[in-house]
């Protein structure tokens, strides 16, 4: 059986926060606001994996009303989702994703993100592709108000 899932997430910038994208600290003047570490890329990947496995979504599994997830490292959340999909006998074929950000430039950090995600998902880096694009200064992301991310995942069992 082959199943596809898609995920989307967005978080606004907030002063005094560190920017975590794809499990990597990206040096920037501001970070993203969220109940967890607000790692928008990992959240989109989590939702793509859960969608493909038919296992609801990130907010069902890790409610933002639960103190347990306050400031949570999203790499840990992804690891829990990987356990869940393995319990359902799914393996990951590939993950493709796109970061929507006017700034900062993500390209230098994409290889490190790929390694973190591959290690956490127990797959090869070649099974993951990460892209970044600006919004050409249009809309809330284009005005630099936040960052978005899209992901698709293909699972097999
Ligand atoms: N935050 C970003 C946005 C883009 N990139 C890289 O720049 C290329 C051109 O982006 P456009 O939005 O102008 O098409 C894009 O393909 C990425 O390689 C980036 O690293 N970080
Ligand atoms: C991850 C969770 C839980 O800490 O909080 P946020 O960091 O706010 O992220 P969101 O993308 O809104 O996803 C669901 C949440 O329940």
TrEMBL record:
SUPFAM superfamilies: IpsF-like (SSF69765). The record marks 35, 134 as: Transition state stabilizer. Binds 1 divalent metal cation per subunit. A divalent metal cation binds at residues 9, 11, 43. GO terms for biological process: isopentenyl diphosphate biosynthetic process, methylerythritol 4-phosphate pathway; terpenoid biosynthetic process. Residues 2-155 form the 2-C-methyl-D-erythritol 2,4-cyclodiphosphate synthase domain. It is an enzyme of class 4 (lyase). InterPro entries: MECDP_synthase (IPR003526), MECDP_synthase_CS (IPR020555), MECDP_synthase_sf (IPR036571). GO terms for molecular function: 2-C-methyl-D-erythritol 2,4-cyclodiphosphate synthase activity; metal ion binding. It catalyses: 4-CDP-2-C-methyl-D-erythritol 2-phosphate = 2-C-methyl-D-erythritol 2,4-cyclic diphosphate + CMP. Pathway: Isoprenoid biosynthesis; isopentenyl diphosphate biosynthesis via DXP pathway; isopentenyl diphosphate from 1-deoxy-D-xylulose 5-phosphate: step 4/6. Its cofactor is a divalent metal cation. Involved in the biosynthesis of isopentenyl diphosphate (IPP) and dimethylallyl diphosphate (DMAPP), two major building blocks of isoprenoid compounds. Catalyzes the conversion of 4-diphosphocytidyl-2-C-methyl-D-erythritol 2-phosphate (CDP-ME2P) to 2-C-methyl-D-erythritol 2,4-cyclodiphosphate (ME-CPP) with a corresponding release of cytidine 5-monophosphate (CMP). Homotrimer. This is 2-C-methyl-D-erythritol 2,4-cyclodiphosphate synthase. It comes from Vagococcus entomophilus. The lineage of its organism: Bacteria, Bacillati, Bacillota, Bacilli, Lactobacillales.
């Amino acid at each position: 059986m082959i199943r596809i899932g898609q995920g989307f997430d967005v978080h606004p910038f907030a002063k005094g926060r560190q920017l975590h994208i794809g499990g990597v600290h990206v040096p920037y003047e501001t970070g993203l606001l969220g109940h967890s570490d607000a790692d928008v890329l990992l959240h989109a990947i989590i939702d793509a994996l859960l969608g493909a496995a038919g296992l609801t979504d990130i907010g069902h599994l890790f409610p933002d009303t639960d103190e347990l997830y306050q400031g949570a490292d999203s790499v840990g959340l992804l690891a829990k989702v990987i356990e869940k999909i393995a319990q359902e006998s799914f393996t990951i074929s590939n993950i493709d994703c796109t970061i929507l950000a006017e700034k900062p430039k993500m390209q230098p950090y994409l290889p490190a993100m790929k390694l973190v995600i591959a290690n956490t998902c127990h797959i090869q880096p070649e099974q993951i592709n990460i892209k970044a694009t600006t919004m050409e200064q249009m809309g809330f992301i284009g005005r630099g108000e936040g960052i978005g991310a899209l992901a698709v995942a293909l699972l097999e069992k």
